[in-house]
Design brief:
Length: about 120
């Protein structure tokens, strides 16, 4: 059974930092692109950052220079270091694992989400 378990969310003041972690169990991790998404009420889930198995990364414009995604393949874990947090970063953050198996088939998994609240 595949599971993605996030942790590290919480309440932080503007300008503060948090580090999110996502541990993957089952047969996934290496070979998968790992991503962090976030969602606020009434809005679509949006990509925050992603890291491929070769460790190339991409970020949304809103977090570039403030957030860093990394992965530890030995621990089946992906991290999101979030610095200089802003109230608009408040959201539920979801871990995602994705692998393209063929032109038509993607294997896609989600964690249960961890809430991040940035407020004074």
């Amino acid at each position: 059974q595949v599971q993605l378990v996030e942790s590290g969310g919480g309440l932080v003041q503007p300008g503060g930092s948090l580090r999110l972690s996502c541990v993957a169990s089952g047969s996934i991790f290496s070979g998968y692109t790992m991503g962090w998404y976030r969602q606020t009420p009434g809005k679509q889930r949006e990509l925050v950052a992603a890291i491929r198995s070769g460790e190339s990364t991409n970020y949304s414009d809103s977090v570039k220079g403030r957030f860093t995604i990394s992965r530890d393949n030995a621990k089946n874990t992906v991290y999101l270091q979030m610095n200089s947090l802003k109230p608009e970063d408040t959201a539920v953050y979801y871990c995602n694992a994705n692998k393209k198996l063929s032109a038509q088939i993607n294997q896609n998994y989600w964690g249960q989400g961890t809430r991040v609240t940035v407020s004074s």
